[in-house]
Amino acid sequence: MVRSACYEKDSVKIKSGVWIAEEDTKTPTFVLEHGSSNWTSIPKKTGVKRCGKSCRLRWNNYMPDLKHDNFTSQEEDLIIKLHAAIGSRWSIIAQQLPGRTDNDVKNNWNTKLKKKLSQMGIDPVTHKPFSKLIADYGNIGTSFHKPTTQIEVANKDFRNYAILLKSDPYQFNQQQTLQTTGNSSFMVTKSHSDDDFSIVKGDSNCTNIKNETNPTLVDAFPPFSWNDFLLEDAFAPPTNNQEQQILFSKENVMSQNGKMKEAMSHQVSSCSDISFVEAILDQENEMFLSFPHLLEEPSNY
DNA sequence: AATCGTAGCAACCGCGTCAAT
DNA sequence: GATTGACGCGGTTGCTACGAT
């Protein structure tokens, strides 16, 4: 189905462009009084000649509790770290920054942070130093390995998130939720009083989730370093030494999946609407637990 | 003073997903 | 199962302000 995002309905001319004061008064007043359950009806009820989508966007960007001042250096650091970990998922990143919208975060990234990283010699896409990218360019084809299985992808996500947690003690003293692959999300909790943090795989609709603690994942928080913003090379095979030290080795991931599975089993009792996709992923995880050799390098056909 | 280039921000657009019919 | 409509997200564009020439 192809149609314009904002189309004319009932012969009402849809206005576009900058919002005027009158429109800015009508829409928020209506939303505050009646809620925002049906955006398409709001233009009709308020008399504003905008499409519902436009009203929603305007409301989201100008809700009363939003900040409109410049980003602090702490906020910018957090954006960089989160971008390194999960990429340009602006809505998720914005959830970690109270009072900021995804549009704010995205604009700040595009106008300031990308340049900041580039000036420091760091590629804002891969979060690697340009020098390393150039060096790696010469090695393309010799050691190319993409994460292909569900567990390997999760492994990469966890490794990135572990880097994130390692490098940011001030932000992650509370429950944090990050969406990773597919419909899944992982909730990570950490406290400053000990070095433990817990990971559970969750569903956004579920509120009663039981945690499993894993004390081995992060041992200590080193001082801040820009190196923390650099992603581990996802395509390079680990050296023997790295293989031993890596936070989320296959065994760890399998262990994690076991724990997540266990955690999820607690969830099932409280969440009746666990998705079909999650069930399929469960089956896949169970298969890999039973047949660990399947985690080995895929065959080249 | 006029022109040009750039940065920052607001809004639009297209697509994917989901729910209702 | 197919269609339709609504919502949410990320990429992109356009406008405005401001500084440099």
Notes on the structure:
It holds the Pfam family Myb_DNA-binding. It comes from Cicer arietinum (Chickpea). GO terms for molecular function: DNA binding. Keywords: DNA-binding, Nucleus, Repeat. This protein is mainly alpha-helical. It contains eleven helices and four strands, in the order H-H-H-H-H-H-H-H-E-E-E-E-H-H-H. The protein folds into three domains: about 40 residues, Arc Repressor Mutant, subunit A (Orthogonal Bundle); about 70 residues, Orthogonal Bundle (Arc Repressor Mutant, subunit A), CATH 1.10.10.60; about 150 residues, no CATH class. The chain has a four-stranded antiparallel β-sheet with strand order 1-2-3-4. The radius of gyration is 23 Å and the shape is elongated. It starts with 20 loop residues before the first helix and ends in an 11-residue tail after the last helix. The N terminus and C terminus are likely disordered. The structure holds a DNA duplex (21 and 21 nucleotides).
Strand order, main sheet: write it out.
Answer: 1-2-3-4
Distance between the termini: 37 Å
Uncertain segments: 1-5, 7-11, 144-159, 165-224, 232-281, 291-301
What structural category characterises the helix and strand content? mainly alpha
* Beta-strand content estimate: 5-15%
Percent helix, as a range, is 40-55%
Total beta strands: 4
